[in-house]
Structure formats: C-alpha cells, structure tokens
Amino acid sequence: MPAFTTAPDFVVTGATVVSHDGRRHQDIAVRDGRILAVGDGLATEGIPAVDATGLMVLPGLVDMHVHLREPGMTEKEDFASGTRAAAAGGVTTVVDMPNTKPPVATAERYRQKLELVRNKAYVDFGLYGMIDHDNDGEIAGMAELGAMGFKLFMGQTTGDNRCPNDAAIFRGLEAAAAADLVVGVHAENDHLLRMFGDRLRDSGRKDPRAHLEGRPAFVEVEAVTRIVTMATEAGAKLHIHHLSTAAGLRRVMDLRAQGHRVTIETLVAHLFLDDTAYDTHGNLVKLNPPIRPAADVDALWAGIARGDVDIIATDHAPHTADEQAETDVWQAYGGFIGVETMLPLLLTAAAQGKLTVEDIVRLCAYRPAQRWSIAGKGQIAAGYDADFVLVDPTAESTLDAASLHSKHTVTPYHGWPLTGSVVATYVRGRLVYEKGEIIGEPTGRQVLPVREPAAVAR
Ligand code: DOR
Ligand code: ZN
Question: By C-alpha distance, which of 49, 61, 109 is closest to 85?
Fold first, then answer.
C-alpha cells in the first residue's frame, strides 16, 4: 500500500500514461485538483478509483489558438459553447483570440472581456490582447491584467481590424518584449493580399479557389521574414501562428539557422485538408491562410516529423451555418470549428503512423504550456494540475457533426472514419466530460503566464 502523507481524492488506475517523451503503465493520484503522485501501485483501499484499464491518459491538450467570439459575435459561438466543445475534445486549456467586436486592444476592453467570460468556461482559459495600429501604450496594462500574450494580425481577417504598419508593429513588439510576453503573429502581407484579391474580384471570379490564388505562398514568406527580422531587433518572443506553406517553413528554417528565435504552429486544418477540399466543401474551408495544395501539406507533416514544428493548434473559428453556406467567396468568412475534432483526428493520424501519441502530447500540450510559461499545465507529473484526458486509442467510429458541442456544428470532417476517441476529460481533478456528455457547471479559470520578475516589476 502506498505511503501517502495526505490521502488522494481519487486514483486513476490501469492506464498507459503518455507524456511528451514516452509512455508508462502507471497510476495517477489526485488531490485538491492537483496531481499528488504518478507511479506504480497507487490504488489504495477506501480511496475511489477510476479504472482506466485499456485506455491511454494524456495531459489535457492546450489549444493556443481559438476564437470563442465574445464579445460581439455570439451568434457564431460563445465561451460556454466553445469550451464545452473543448472539453469534449480533450482540450483542458484554451487561449482565446482578441479579434472580437470590439477587439481586445486596450486594458479596459481586456478587463471587460475577462468580466464577461470568467464564469462561463467549462475548461481553463487564457486571453490574448491585440497589437493594433496604435496601442503600444496599452500593452503593459493588458499584461498586468493577465494577458497570455499578444496577437498581431499582419494580414486582414475576421473582425476587419486595421492592420498595423511596420512602425506600429515595431512599437508593439518593443512593448511586448518589455512585458516579457509572447507575440503571436498572423503572417500574411496585407497590401499584397488585398491587391491580389481585388484583381481576382475585378476579373469576375467568385469561386472558392480564388481565395487560395489570392494568397500565394510568398505573401506568407514575406511577412514571416519581416516579422522575424523586427522581433529579433525588438527582443520580442515571437510565435508564428498557422504557418501554412512549404516555402514559409523553409524560410523559418533559414532564419533559425541565422540565429533568429521563433516558434511555429501548424493548424489541424492545414495538415488534414488540401486544395481538393475547395471542390468538396466550397467556402466552408475558406481559411486565412488558405488550405494549400498537397505539396505544402506534405511539407508541414515532414516538418512535424523532423521536430521543426513546435505546436499544433486548431484556429477554432466558428461562423453560423448560414455564413458557412455562402457561395460567393468574397462574402464568405474564413475559418471553421475544430477544437473538438483535433484530438480524434490526430489519434487517427497516430494510428496510421503519421506521428506518435507522444508527438501529440508534445505538440498540443507540453510545448504550448512551456512556450507561454503556463504553470501547472501540459504534463502529468506530481504538482501539476490534474488536467488529463482518457482516450481509447483503438475505438473505431465515424465523425458525426451532429454530436459536436459548438453552436454551429458544420465541419468538413463530417463522415470521416476515426481511430481513437476521447472517453473522459478532467480539469483540475473535476470530470467535465464523459462519453458524449458535459458534466456539471462551468468552473474553468483564467490561466496566467509566469513572467520574469524583472518584467513584472517594470
Ligand atoms: O480564417 C481565419 N479565421 N483566420 C484567422 O486568422 C481568423 C479567423 C477568424 O477569426 O474567423
Ligand atoms: Zn485564428
């Protein structure tokens, strides 16, 4: 019998615990929302046991890129529906983007958003602030309120936020560096993509593929090169969201070889869909940056295999069912839901040998928590939050949009065969999802980045 100094609330037994660097058959003891111990033979008489025999236990996924649409666009999604979807997808922490109405670009707006959403979340959440065309004076204030980092839209997307010019970008990078927080970038050159878009529109094109043609790879390459160059000079921690092209990845590798430090993310959508999806799904798969030809998809998978890609995220970007059915590409919105389907799709890829479950943990939990300095997340280890997901890695099923938890459940993955399913999700020791059902009330909390004391004191 294990010698606990304090008795656990419950013990998960019989599972294979998968971490970023291996898997072991071990028990997990939980107390007060934290992991008390991980080891052999922790089951103890009189202590409730969760029998997970035959299942894998993974750290709860940390999705650094979701759009839950509060405030201002709750017809698309809200914090309750979006975080229910997260719970059902084994995602225990989401970090929400600031391109809302109004955008989260001032400390006051940040405070209002936190107030608005704080009691609605079923999983833990962080909030980004935005770097806009003239708000470097607001960065420190948002940081003090707990901003996880800052999103910089170099290219225009949902919300119609004015993209900052290079001087504003540089001032924003300096302010973020002073606050010791990561700047995450949507790296597309706005002037170029507007010009190409206008040309295609003027030529009479309205079809979904025009979106891809209007955002060629070099638009991403140029923005990546410019932002990496500026971030190094400003001393800012830089992350590139949704890198989508082979050429963009090559440029990042060149820049890293020159000593620039930057992390990169690929989206589930850019890994699982190629440009044939425009023919099947039309504007539902309109995404910024766009779904690319198969050669780009292959390059991103190769980047994952080599360890060059740091993070996989969803860019969960809900729109209403009507909006997703729009047939004119210029009227259609970019993005679609994804937070609930990430883990089943990645488990299916793992079953096919495209990556390992350890890779999934590294890319979707361990590295995100490490990169954004989120204490207590991303690992199953003593002292960490008891955020974990029980998965059945061999369960065969068919993805059904009707079973999803978002406000609007249209998804390009409807009908896809799956190997691997989410059985149950725990957030800080609380069962929040089990076998199709959301359990209990929203008790998600805001997560904060751990900042260097020197930066906090400034
Ligand atoms: O397609 C996209 N949709 N890309 C983005 O960068 C933003 C997102 C949204 O908010 O709808
Ligand atoms: Zn996004």
Answer: 61
